[in-house]
Amino acid sequence: RLKESSCPSLTRYFRLLFFYVPVKRSCAPPSTPQGHQHPSPAAGDPPPRAQVGDPSVAGLEGSTNDISRYLGLLDPWYERNVLGLMNLPMDVLCQSAKAEAEPQEDAPEQLPILADMILYYCRFAARPLLLQLYQTQLTFIGGEKRTEVFIHSLELGHSAATRAIKASGPGSKRLGIDGDREAIPLTLQIAYSKTAASGRSHWNDVEKVCTSINLSKACRRHEELASKTECLNLTMTEVVKRQNSKSKKSFNQQISVSQIKVDKAQIIGVQSSFAVCLDQDEQKILQSVTRCEISVCYKPRDSAPLAPRGSPEPPPDPSGFHSLLCLPIATFSGALP
């Protein structure tokens, strides 16, 4: 919308619909970087070595469907009809949705179950669900600044670098993936604003030696959906004690993990840079970042989309969050009352 304030484009003349299809991969690293919103394997593709619902795979790869789980909390239909596909084995998902006793030569090719369910989702999910967007302003080593948005999570440091290594395909075996115990710690200046019921900002400024800092939406259970306060969980993986030895490889001897609910945060590398990953998407990993500022997205003031001629003006938003910028994801029943 900011870019289209000076140049008319799609959102001024078309009504865009957004759908979110979860993807769960096998333990084998992909040959090309693949984000969570990319299409799933087609019917003709060979099934991977591990099944989709294999719990050991989830432990190795880590979750890449936190956004889908959040949508499932808000819309039970989405959880059953879309997210529920992730519990099925890959060979079942690739089977034809409608089997024919005697296939005809001129008959159209039958869609696999996965493609048929995605088509069902895109046809019948007509209720938009507003997801609050967050923005991060990144400063790179050369001084260049860039603003990005994310829906659910931001990974910073070792966890983002590990995700980048996994996305490198066959090269990930050569590079190796170390845990937090063998990660190189970063000295970071962390300033954050704690969430308060009164709405006042109380800033805290600390300097920590960390391997990773992750921010994600604080709402994880259905009971927490009633809260009107947008906030993030800031998780710091802090190195309390590090073993340095000339004869042995240095490692983090003692690690502490702490979690704080914040609404804004600012992270600066002290004579060091770090990697940043947005929404667990390997195609949204940014390297050589020295400063990262995270805050809630607000609607641009002078960039409201123009409605086509003859169309009635949309009614004003009765909720108290009319100034927040939200992404409308199509679901079946919308948000629960």
TrEMBL record:
GO cellular component: cytoplasm; nucleus; phosphatidylinositol 3-kinase complex, class IB; plasma membrane
GO molecular function: 1-phosphatidylinositol-3-kinase regulator activity; kinase activity
Segments of this protein annotated with the region Disordered: 29-58
Topology within the bilayer: Peripheral membrane protein
Keyword terms: Cell membrane, Cytoplasm, Kinase, Membrane, Nucleus, Transferase
GO process annotations (BP): G protein-coupled receptor signaling pathway
Native source species: Cettia cetti
Localization (cell): Cell membrane; Cytoplasm; Nucleus
Protein name: Phosphoinositide 3-kinase regulatory subunit 5
